[in-house]
Amino acid sequence: MIKILDFSKTIYELSKETPEIIEIMKSLGFDAITDPVMLNTAGRVMTIPKGAAMKGIALDQIKKELINQGYVIKE
Known about the structure:
mainly alpha
């Protein structure tokens, strides 16, 4: 089964659709993603590209890791 991550969706939406991305995102520097309060507040408005820009993490690095984990990125 193809695992598609739509980068236009919020981190909250993506975490509900594919909970396993939480640990991947944490390993990439999104430390607060495991905090339920942060996920339910900031995560509801934050997309992966916006979060990457805010945290100063290269979006290409995130895409590469997600692709290595078997995801297809939809932008």
